[in-house]
């Protein structure tokens, strides 16, 4: 069970409160490691209203002002198929999605 923390505006859009808990299978066959792509795929499948909010629908690339964190590490620039930390996969730590701030 993967724990996902969404920023307030995405919680409102998906009509959820607190953490989202997802069953996520890894890789294309389900036997591989759990990755950012797998988590985002599962999140968008469960909450289709989130499609296009965290990553571009066409390219699948992370949106510029969206950041991903886990285990006190910024995973935002990792390739989407990089395995997530074991503590996230075990449910001990959440996968955190943040909306970054811009401006001065």
How would you describe what is shown here?
This protein is of the alpha+beta class. The chain has a single domain, classed as Beta-grasp domain (Ubiquitin-like (UB roll), Roll), CATH 3.10.20. Helices cover 21% and strands 18% of the residues. Strands 2-1-5-3-4 form a 5-stranded mixed beta sheet, covered by helices on one side. The chain is globular. It starts with a strand and ends in a 5-residue tail after the last strand. The mean pLDDT is 91. This is MoaD/ThiS family protein.
Task: Write a brief caption for the model.
This is MoaD/ThiS family protein. The protein has 104 residues and is an alpha+beta fold.
Give me the CATH fold name: Ubiquitin-like (UB roll)
Mean pLDDT, nearest integer? 91
Strands of the widest sheet, in order across it, are 2-1-5-3-4
Low-confidence stretches: none
Overall outline: globular
CATH class: Alpha Beta
Radius of gyration: 13 Å
Classified in CATH, the superfamily is Beta-grasp domain
Largest sheet geometry: 5 strands, mixed
Organism: Plantactinospora siamensis
Protein name: MoaD/ThiS family protein
Features:
single chain, 104 residues, alpha+beta, Ubiquitin-like (UB roll), 5-stranded mixed beta sheet, 3 helices, 18% strand, globular
Topology:
Layout: E1 2-5, H1 8-14, E2 20-22, H2 36-46, E3 66-70, E4 73-74, H3 86-89, E5 95-99
Parallel strand pairs: 1-5
Antiparallel strand pairs: 1-2, 3-4, 3-5
